[in-house]
């Protein structure tokens, strides 16, 4: 296992599933993460901002809880990070339905990393306020029905928070869990030995093949240009970059391992398309379109260390705009 991945085993996270119920007939955009993220930010500002949202001039900037939650600072900022995008949280929503009726429910996931884990109550309050104020352009009103942890235990019971069920896990635990699933369907020994003898251009201990299915757009620059299709080399580079960013966020010393030889896998085929997600930025007071590649990529020649890296990226999301849910994929075999 690479030293970068070994160091990253201690990245802390918690994964929360929110279920909300609409109190009226309404409409929502097909891609909901941007609306949810923007709504959370707006509710946090309404409840906490004391300087009229003039962040650049604010004399409370270092103490601002909105900045700490939505744009958390690195313990050690990577040299290649130039934007204010936070790595402290990720939102997921795989419901692309647009028309909802009174009583319909919607679920979405909120993954918190590192020091953002302690702000659960602030996220919960903001989402509850969003239900009262209204989500999206049509101001969809809702109530929170349940909040569950990654083990499907209830955190919100009869409108009371059960912090005993607020579980904090390590990235290494997730990787081990996914590796156990993989090994349950591992190739029979005879087939495995035959596969290990197969010659690959840059893989000496190949044993696994599979497919990555990108559920949300993946945006990344590789060798100076934005990718136009799905290939394993930029995907692996993006996972390693994401691991290093979260190590820096957590204050884990991993810089000396940044340039080590990366894990490898061979791209056998891919199906991809360019997809855009429209969003409105309250901070910039303007509309914009976020673009990325969505689709599937099949791979071969992945050893155990590469599979561990792929499983790490599965949880963390990779590439740009990860806080908007971009870069979500599933490893399949």
Could you list some keywords that capture this structure?
333 residues, 29% helix, 28% strand, alpha+beta, single chain, 4-stranded antiparallel sheet, 15 strands, Alpha-Beta Plaits, globular, 5-stranded antiparallel sheet
Walkthrough of the structure:
- 29% of the residues lie in helices and 28% in strands.
- It contains eight helices and 15 strands.
- The protein has two domains: 3-10 and 171-332, Alpha-Beta Plaits (2-Layer Sandwich), CATH 3.30.70.1900; 13-169, no CATH class.
How are the SSEs ordered, and which strands pair?
Layout: H1 3-8, E1 12-22, E2 26-27, H2 33-48, H3 65-70, E3 89-92, E4 99-100, E5 105-113, H4 120-133, E6 142-148, E7 156-157, E8 160-161, E9 169-170, H5 171-184, H6 189-197, E10 208-218, E11 221-222, E12 225-226, H7 232-250, E13 266-281, E14 286-302, H8 304-316, E15 329-332
Antiparallel strand pairs: 1-5, 1-6, 1-9, 2-4, 3-5, 7-8, 10-14, 10-15, 11-12, 13-14
> What's the order of the H and E elements?
HEEHHEEEHEEEEHHEEEHEEHE
Kindly provide the radius of gyration, computed on alpha-carbon positions and rounded to a whole number of angstroms.
21 Å
- The fraction of residues assigned to DSSP E strands is 25-35%
Proportion of helical residues: 25-40%
